[in-house]
């Protein structure tokens, strides 16, 4: 019987301690990572189908503005088709007869937006435009849109790009 008493389990009274320092370090690193990757932009820009946007290295957030998209097939404001594009050129009936850089339907729509804008749409009063344009379009086509927009009272035009490396 003496042997049996020698094999009895002894109760251990040690306690488990949690190392808070390493957990704090881990959460600090996570917090810094999330803050760096957090975007504060409230502007939602969805690329139109068929438009391949150019790439850029800028990290500037877009501002709220009138959204114009120019593809190889059409010119749109938001989702509304304004004018047709064929072979990277606007159709002759959409251009002014005396000024080949002036797009009549675009001017009319922008003029209508400017006259009917509300106080919440202050970017319309300031003349801001975000232009999504296919990267394969020639500059002459883009210039016609920029010229017409400035004639309609929208001189602040920004090109939308994809963030590249």
Molecular structure report:
The structure is a single chain. 32% of the residues lie in helices and 19% in strands. α3 runs parallel beside α5 (139-151). α5 (139-151) links the parallel β6 (128-133) and β7 (156-159). It is built from 5 helices and 8 strands, in the order ααβββββααβαββ. It has a domain at 55-163. The mean pLDDT is 81. The protein starts with a helix and ends with a strand. The protein is α/β, with parallel strands linked by helices and 165 residues long.
Which characteristics define this entry?
8 strands, single chain, 6-stranded mixed β-sheet, 32% helix, alpha/beta
Order of helices and strands: HHEEEEEHHEHEE
Helix content: 25-40%
Beta-strand residue percentage: 15-25%
Q: How many strands, what sense, and barrel or not for the largest sheet?
A: 6 strands, mixed
Rg, Cα atoms, Å: 30 Å
Report the end-to-end length measured between terminal Cα atoms. 79 Å
pLDDT < 50 stretches: none
Category from helices, strands and their pairing: alpha/beta
Kindly state the number of beta strands: 8
Q: Give the overall form.
A: elongated
Mean pLDDT: 81
The strands making up the biggest β-sheet line up spatially as: 5-4-3-2-6-7
Number of helices: 5
What are the SSEs and their pairings?
Blueprint lengths: L1 H5 L13 H18 L17 E2 L9 E5 L3 E4 L2 E7 L2 E2 L13 H12 L6 H5 L1 E6 L5 H13 L4 E4 L2 E2 L2
Parallel strand pairs: 1-8, 2-6, 6-7
Antiparallel strand pairs: 2-3, 3-4, 4-5
Helix pairs in contact: 3-5
Give me a quick take on this structure:
The protein has helices at 2-6, 20-37, 104-115, 122-126, 139-151, and strands spanning 55-56, 66-70, 74-77, 80-86, 89-90, 128-133, 156-159, 162-163.
């Amino acid at each position: 019987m003496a042997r049996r008493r020698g094999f009895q389990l002894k109760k251990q009274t040690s306690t488990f301690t949690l190392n808070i320092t390493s957990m704090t370090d881990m959460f600090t690193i996570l917090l810094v990572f999330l803050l760096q990757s957090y975007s504060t932009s409230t502007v939602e820009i969805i690329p139109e189908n068929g438009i391949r946007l150019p790439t850029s290295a800028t990290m500037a957030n877009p501002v709220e503005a009138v959204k114009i998209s120019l593809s190889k097939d059409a010119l749109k404001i938001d989702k509304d088709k304004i004018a047709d594009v064929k072979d990277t050129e606007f159709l002759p009936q959409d251009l002014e007869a005396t000024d080949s850089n002036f797009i009549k339907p675009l001017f009319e729509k922008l003029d209508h937006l400017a006259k009917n804008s509300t106080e919440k749409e202050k970017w319309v009063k300031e003349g801001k435009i975000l232009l999504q344009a296919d990267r394969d379009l020639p500059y002459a086509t883009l210039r016609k849109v920029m010229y017409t927009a400035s004639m309609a009272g929208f001189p602040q035009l920004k090109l939308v790009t994809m963030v590249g490396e």
